[in-house]
């Protein structure tokens, strides 16, 4: 499998955009991360292309990612940011920027950093999400709490035309070794909305084991999601450089390959690694 699309890559430049969540961060993440740093590792890990995903709730971060996408052919798409609390501005930016940018394939907001777990249900935000649905632009949900899944349920019911991607599987209770608790109950409800998909990503850091995490730590949760959502609604992403908190990029992909390889035959693995991402984000592959 040498045609994997890594659907979750971050790049940031502290001089180009403001990253509130990095202020005072004492980890290895608190520096610039350029795509050129990751590029050499793509071939080693069997990655054919990557998607850049927003890391700040501002336009500057999105503009940086678009510059990177123009410079590197292996960047196949960008999940950017829009001011969802201002629907008029969302419409204006879509008409003035999104439609002219072939790399822009989706939108995300760092809802897990909002004090209001129901942030997505604010009326102006819902109005913006309706605009995204009308424009056939998907939305990535970066949730970490059961309340975030409850919100996804309500958004899916209110806006059935909006495609939603659950980043990092909404952080399953891996560290607690819980199978599957409230997370599992809510995922069994969410999966009934066919416009909601899952991104197998960010699981190494979720284990809480540093670089000592293994395939066995995450396999039950991946298997559960595949059972609920089906192979046809799951994709995979590395979450670099956040994933470096749990070991190397190569280790992340080696572990995902081991889990998915044990659970699925080659044809279905290809769906997870490539075909589903192309379908969900409407990627234009060479």
List the helices and strands and how they pair.
Layout: E1 4-9, H1 35-45, E2 47-53, H2 59-71, E3 75-80, H3 87-96, E4 104-109, H4 123-134, E5 139-141, H5 146-158, E6 164-166, H6 181-190, E7 196-200, H7 203-206, H8 215-229, E8 234-236, H9 249-263, H10 266-281
Parallel strand pairs: 1-2, 2-3, 3-4, 4-5, 5-6, 6-7, 7-8
Protein name: L-fuconolactonase
GO molecular function: hydrolase activity
Family: Belongs to the metallo-dependent hydrolases superfamily.
Describe this structure in words.
The chain is of the alpha/beta class. The protein has a single domain (4-281), classed as TIM Barrel. Helices cover 42% and strands 14% of the residues. The protein has ten helices and eight strands. The chain has helices at 35-45, 59-71, 87-96, 123-134, 146-158, 181-190, 203-206, 215-229, 249-263, 266-281, and strands at 4-9, 47-53, 75-80, 104-109, 139-141, 164-166, 196-200, 234-236. Strands 1-2-3-4-5-6-7-8 form an eight-stranded parallel sheet. Strand 3, helix 3 and strand 4 (104-109) form a beta-alpha-beta unit. Helix 8 crosses helix 9. The protein is globular, with a radius of gyration of 17 Å. It starts with a strand and ends in a 5-residue tail after the last helix.
Helix content: 40-55%
| Main sheet record | 8 strands, parallel
Task: Label the CATH architecture.
Answer: Alpha-Beta Barrel
> What is the CATH superfamily label?
Metal-dependent hydrolases
The secondary structure category is alpha/beta
| H/I helix tally | 10
Find the count of extended strands (DSSP E, 2+ residues).
Answer: 8
Determine the CATH topology: TIM Barrel
**Number of folding domains?**
1
Spatial strand order of the main sheet: 1-2-3-4-5-6-7-8
Overall morphology = globular
Low-confidence stretches: none
From the alpha-carbon coordinates, what is the Rg to the nearest angstrom?
Answer: 17 Å
CATH level 1 class label: Alpha Beta
Beginning-to-end CA distance, first to last residue: 17 Å
